[in-house]
Amino acid sequence: MSDQESDSGKLALDKLNRALRTLSAASASIIHGVAEEPMVEDVCRILVEIGGYRLAWVGLADDRDSSLLLQAGQHFRGRRSREQVRTDVRIDGWGSACELISRAVRLGRFVVLRRGGEDRWSQACSRLPRDADYGSALALPLKHGALTLGALALYATGVEAFDEDEIQLLSDLVGNLSHGIVALRDARRRSAAELALGQEQQFLQAVIDGVADPTLVISVDYDILLMNNAARQERAGGAPPRPGAKCHEVLSGCDGPCGEEGKICPLREVQRTGKAARVEHRQVGMDGRVRIFELQASPLWQADGSLRGIIQTARDITERLRVEETLRENQNRLDYLAHHDPLTNLPNRLRFNTRLQHAMGRARETRRQVALLFLDLDRFKNINDSLGHELGDQVLREVAGRLRTCLRASDTVARLGGDEFVVILEGIEDLNAVALVARNILRNLSRPFQVGPHDLYVTSSIGISLFPGDAQSVEGLMKHADVAMYRAKEEGRNNYQFYRPDMHVRTPEMLIMESNLRRAMSENQLQLYYQPQYDLASRQLIGLEALVRWKHPVHGMISPADFIPLAEDTGLIVPLGQWVMKTACAQAKAWQEQGYAPVRVAVNISAREFRQLDFIDHLDAILSETGLDPHWLELEITESIAMQNFDETIMTLTDLKIRGVHLAIDDFGTGYCSLGYLKRFPISKLKIDQSFVRDINRDSNDAAIATSIIALGRSMHMEVIAEGVEREDQAQLLLAKGCHQAQGFLFSPAVPAEQVVSFFSRAQEKTRGARVIPLPRISAP
Ligand SMILES: Nc1nc2c(ncn2[C@@H]2O[C@@H]3COP(=O)(O)O[C@H]4[C@@H](O)[C@H](n5cnc6c(=O)[nH]c(N)nc65)O[C@@H]4COP(=O)(O)O[C@H]3[C@H]2O)c(=O)[nH]1
């Protein structure tokens, strides 16, 4: 081998070694590269410093507009340029500066140019430093699959640089560099996507954190995808859920999805129905308190229509449920009070009426009979009068208890008021069964009642009417059972009677009483007493109630409670009522003419009187005859009068109102006045029945009813007066509850007209100074 040959072999070996070192260093740089620009720059540096090229640069295509950005590192031997040339050289055009690279990119293969051998050489070198000694240049396209990323340009001193082997090695290097660039770009895109995802996540988190109710986004696998701040506070003390946490673990502390113990899984509900779902869950909070949550789950659909999961909001409804429960209890309690007798807890008249209606309906279907037993305690008034109402009440409670024991659970026993009870027996085929029950009741009630220190003997009388035989309506059955009950009393009490039509024929006793009453009216045995009514706060006289008295020459004073019902039955109530009205009006006018300050006089009107077609005509005649201004007359009707024949009643009441007559509802609370009707009546006053006043300080039911009546009166702009006020504590409590008027023994019983002037005098004293009223003391008629 000649020296020349040996030198050229050594040179070739050096060249190969250098090329391999270059490839190895460039590969290491590519593998460890973390960012595209420094990596490309480093590869250029290696090509110059290790590879021995005069210059290396990379031009990268901008895939946005197919222009070429010469943005990566240029390297010159001995110095380094950080310049980035951004040029608008089109890949398919030929610009001055990037000739070489543009061409390699456009052709998609390497391009070699040599000084003198190629007419474009000067253009390819036009942007290079002028002092450089270039002999040849090579451009290799950076390709990744079908995509051309740009090209690497190398400049060397010799004209014959870049032989085939070298180009091959450099092609491998460029291939690695392309991979490196693509890998870094992918990584950059990935991290940008991850960043965007993170920001999106943060945005969503901020959105649901803004929701006040605990809110979760749950996947179909029960994973918690999002949980808002309120939910974290509620379930995890503010901590975020651990990754992969399941909703049932966090919300209920359960291993498996909800479904047991009546807890419906909201996710499954949404999956089952494909719609939003609402369920209630009982959960123990972080503080150990049991709370009820209303969970509202809305489906979270994906673009392909499949269910991604649910958005679940929870609302603590513990307090709302508690309030609802209290309201329900209050409503039940009010319903109960409206349908039950507070003293005995038996159904009251209202409930009894409904039950009887239903029983009649069932009897029509089953073709069986209904028996109505009307029961009245014999001489119960004596117990009340001699031992007091409290013991009387105890007896009534005990009677209620005993009645219940005599009946089947399906039978009804109710208290109508006072000492009157009714029993409904259904499914009757044989009247003997009814008689058996009646006998059983009589036997049970005739056993002594142990009340306080007393052994009381109470008997009762029972009248029985049958549906459908005796009557087809509640009123008819009641009326006939009542007639039969009176017959039982006449038969010596403590017995029962089935109704018979001939019972309407008056008994000799009744006929005697009737003729006595007629005589009483013609012989002036009747007298009007007046009970004063007072303003509770000022204790000023505001009215007088006229109450009739019968002074029998032999039997003495007979209570109106005993003869008014008879007068109603016989029709005598009509002339009696006219006498009362005329006397009361004349008396009121007389007092006014005597110079006493006028007060309103109240007169009781019974149902039969009120229903007389000429009732208003008679009233007009009395008013014109006596000259009393109708404003000073008040008519008291009972709830039951008001509730019968609504249309007629409202016409009569309106006629009265037009005349200026005041209207009051007596014994309010004992009947079943519909509020709907009440508000349509032109009534100005409600009288709280004395049965609610008696124990108003002791019995919470009485107090509740009195309070309701006062509130009702106030809401309907009516006056409210309490009757039967016997003690100062009752008066004080009524005043405190907002009832401003009262009458009762606390102030005075009903007294004859002559004594009434003493009330006027006292009223006069109280108002002295305010108003001077002349008092020509003329004696009362
Ligand atoms: N325990 C107690 N009782 C008190 C007290 N203050 C007043 N009373 C009594 O309570 C009754 C109130 O009259 P009422 O509810 O209209 O009840 C009256 C009314 O429904 C009827 N009545 C009386 N006079 C007439 C009348 O002229 N016409 C009509 N249709 N009915 C009348 O007879 C019922 C009974 O009348 P009276 O025996 O006079 O009984 C009166 C009165 O004396 C009190 O503090 N304690």
UniProtKB/TrEMBL annotation:
Residues annotated as domain PAC: 277-329
SMART domains listed in its UniProt record: EAL, GGDEF, PAC
One Pfam match: PAS_4
Domain of life: Bacteria
All residue ranges annotated as the EAL domain in the record: 510-764
Residues in GGDEF domain copies: 368-501
Protein name: EAL domain-containing protein
Naturally occurring in which organism (per UniProt): Geoalkalibacter halelectricus
